[in-house]
C-alpha cells in the first residue's frame, strides 16, 4: 500500500458561504478514491487523504474545479468567513478574498484560525478565533486571542480599530509573523497574546 498525504480542501471565500457544487463533491470523491478518508473539520475545510504520488495532479484538478487546496496540520487555516448576506460590497467580499490569499497555509507553531465577519453581527463567530476581523462600515476591527476550546473559553480582545482595507492583510500577517518568531515551541496563540500583552501587539501593528 502506497503512502498518503492529508490535504485541506475548501470552497473559495464567496457569497453564500461554504458551499460546494455537486461537481466539486463528485470530483473529491472520484479523485480521492473509494478507500480515501475524508474528514469534515470544525474549521470548514475537508481533510482528504490522497496518494502522495498523485498529490500534485489531484491538487491541480481540485483547483481547476474552483476548490482551494492548502496544507493540513500546523498552519493557518483558510479564512473562516461569513456568508456575506449584506451584499458583496457592503460585507467586503473582495477584501476577505485578499485576506484569505495572504493568510491561508502559513506554517505556524500551532494551527491558527482567522475569522472574518462582514458586519458587527459576526455570524461567523470571529471573536472565538485566534484572529478575528470584523468589518465596521468602511474599516475593520481586529481581535486576537479567542479560545473556543476547553473549559476556559475566552473571547478575543480588541487589538485595533479603524484598519483600512489596504492595510488589513499586512496587519494580520504581521501578527502571524510575530507569533511565528516569538512563540515558545507549541505555545497556543491565545496564551501567546496573554504573555506578550495586548499593548506590545498594538505597538507591533501600529
Ligand atoms: S456577519 Fe453580517 S454580513 Fe456576514 S453573514 Fe453575518 S450578518 Fe451577514
Automatic annotation (TrEMBL):
Protein name as annotated: Nitrite reductase
Residue ranges annotated for the Nitrite/sulphite reductase 4Fe-4S domain, each copy included: 101-205
Domain of life: Bacteria
Coiled-coil features, chain-numbered ranges: none
Pfam families on file: NIR_SIR (PF01077)
InterPro entries: NO2/SO3_Rdtase_4Fe4S_dom (IPR006067), NO2/SO3_Rdtase_4Fe4S_sf (IPR045854)
Keyword line: Iron, Iron-sulfur, Metal-binding
Record keyword Ribosomal protein present: no
